Amino acid sequence: MTDDSGTQGIIGTRHYRLIRAVIVIWMTAVIVAAFSGGGVLLNIPRIPILEHTARNLYFHVPMWFTMMALTMLSAWHSLRVLQTGSHVYDLRAKSAAIVAVCFGILGLLTGSVWARWTWYVESGLWWNFDPKQSMAAIQVLIYAAYFALRNAVDDEKERTRIAAAYNLLAFITVPFLLYVLPRQMESLHPGAEGNPAFSEITDPILRVVFYAAVIGFIGLAWLLYTQRVRIENVCNRIDALGRPDL
Questions:
Q1: Residues 182, 225, 102, CA angle at the centre, nearest 5°?
Q2: CATH, domain range 8-241
Q3: What are phi and psi of 34, to 5 degrees?
Q4: pLDDT (tens digit per residue) in 205-222
Q5: CA-CA distance, 224 to 141, in Å (whole number)?
Q6: Which residue ranges make up each domain of the chain?
Q7: N or C: which end of the chain has fewer CB within 10 A?
């Protein structure tokens, strides 16, 4: 079975299943490595202050890399929408944005928990408006507004064009809000003004697992994106069957 708006419009079913199996095995290995210790598989060192909460590096930070990858994919499809006016590209842009926002929310949650048990353990705070925290939250809200905008426009063609234009503008803010601006401000996050980069305070073995986690989570997001595209396409077909005027 093939479908112009689904995954099979890009790769065959057999190849898709193979890629899915590889991603599942990859992520299983990442999770096992992330929680290994005591000489089992990888002996993850304990870092001052962070201690073993440093393992959250394998989950919290990849969420943001994954969000950036999915917003880039969504922006590409929105660009194609403006070039072609195709509803297929609009569907893909929307699906990629949905997955991107989900990973953004997970990034905020894992960051809040991490901060609570490291920086704010004595005060009991879960949120302290650290520059990276605040700008990451703003980034998620910008993309939440993308969906609000879509729901506010009734005409399908107009909604497609306006949403695509907004999506491209939203994507332009991503590198500034998630990377450039926070690094220029005082922050508890590594790499910010006055703080060393994480690579300077971590053991090389941490970075090995971290890079593998980034690849794995992006692969997982791709699977979720393709499944979302399929669901949207099926819903559209069902809706079309109920509207004989189309």
A1: 40
A2: 1.20.120
A3: -65, -35
A4: 778 888 999 999 999 999
A5: 21
A6: 8-241
A7: N
Mean local confidence (pLDDT), 81-96 = 94
Q: Name 165's Cβ contacts closer than 8 Å, sequence gap at least 6.
A: 78, 82
Separation CA 24–CA 178 (nearest Å): 28
* Mean pLDDT, residues 161-168 taken together: 96
Terminal Cα distance for the chain, rounded: 23
Q: Which pLDDT tens digit goes with each residue over 172-208?
A: 999 999 888 887 777 777 655 555 556 555 667 778 8
For residue 20, give both structure tokens.
């899915």
The tokens 């509207």 sit on which residue? 243
Token couple for 77: 């499809």
- Prediction pTM value: 0.85
Phi, psi of 63 (to 5 degrees): -60, -40
Task: Kindly calculate the radius of gyration of the chain based on its CA atoms and give it in whole angstroms.
Answer: 20
- Any alpha helices (H) in 44-155, and if so which ranges? 60-84, 87-116, 131-152
Task: Give the Cα separation of 156 and 158 in Å (integer).
Answer: 6
Which class for 74: exposed (0-12), middle (13-18), buried (19 or more C-beta within 10 A)?
buried
Q: What is the CA angle 230-231-236, rounded to 5?
A: 100
Q: Which two tokens stand for residue 243?
A: 């509207």
Give residue-wise pLDDT tens across range 109-135.
999 988 888 877 778 888 888 888 899
Asked whether 60 and 110 are in contact (CB, 8 A), the reply is yes
Q: Given its phi and psi angles, is residue 49 left (phi above 0), alpha (psi -120 to 50 degrees) or beta? A: left
What's the pLDDT tens digit per position in 32-61?
888 876 444 566 666 666 666 778 888 999
